[in-house]
């Protein structure tokens, strides 16, 4: 039988060593992230036009080594299948009915725009459908309806590519950031450059560094880095470890530089503040007793809170045009509860979500992730009992937990499940021990754990973020 205490001590030391050795020069932590098809295809198209041979070859190799479409959901699989079919000129992009929903149509149009760039001749009915969609989108852009700035950027790019609207280039260029990218996002930046290059010359070398730095270790590309989120999570671990003052100081300096004027943080640089990342960073600052940055951040969270209506007392991720999500409300409520603020509206809403069996996460895939977030806030015994039964019933024979039913165990879900059991004061020591043993057995030699494709962004695309996995797996080992 495993000597659990000795093994735990060794696992903790290895995991903390991984954190120390992966801090970046600017004081942040970031990824690495799993590569995805659409970002890699877009980077490949740019590299070919710009003459970036190294990036072109690496992305071409990645695409050739991933001939089968991947998706953790039906919609993600359908999108990736459509893109691969276009690359192979096997399909004419028959639209999935759900792609026409507001939140998904942008992903459909991205694939259509790639098809146009590859000189695909779409059938007339598909062209007419896209024309109607783009007409509606242009009306929304003119009306200045609430759109995330990167969504606006991508819609402008689609209009330029699909409708030859070179008159929109100036507006698109105004959305470019100072770091040689649009919102630090590979897909948004690539499609913007591809659209502009159809009408005017571009100094591609100005953007080479961005694409070089954002290439993943396997030669592919992923979603925008989420370094502010990763740094906030990692600081929550380090805040309670001895002899880490220098590393913590560097991280706080980084967060100070990346804090937006409104007091919040976006998940990556050059993006507007949002509630989830801000709450994760603030929780780290609370543990550290770092009040200087915290007060401005709390003011930001207060400013985006719903004050009337159905969602009174809750928080959106970005703005009040969105519905609240379980994990975001739970994270922000936890932060404010530590400040002594009234979070009764949030607690009641979360409790009701559990009691009505509608408490699954939005931005992550793991039910255990939602469980650990909710349990840090609610006290209702019946609701807590429901979550406890769910956690106990979903452990697999290997001692671990899956992100969703039907999948294999992974380190992130297992870590979150163990954190939830601790918040429940569960007496199930045998279950806890087998979960710990799973994490110890599956730790890699470098101190972290195998990647878990658990983050969702933008919907329905999924990806893995190594620092999130590392935090979730390590956290219960330190408790």
UniProtKB/TrEMBL annotation:
Pathway: Secondary metabolite biosynthesis; hopanoid biosynthesis. GO terms for cellular component: lipid droplet. Its EC number is 4.2.1.129. Residues 146-234, 235-445 form the Prenyltransferase alpha-alpha toroid domain. It is an enzyme of class 4 (lyase). Keywords: Lyase, Repeat. One of its GO terms (molecular function) is intramolecular transferase activity. The keyword Repeat applies. The keyword Repeat applies. GO terms for biological process: triterpenoid biosynthetic process. InterPro entries: Prenyltrans, Squalene_cyclase, Terpenoid_cyclase/PrenylTrfase. Belongs to the terpene cyclase/mutase family. This is Squalene--hopene cyclase. It comes from candidate division WS6 bacterium OLB20. The gene is shc.
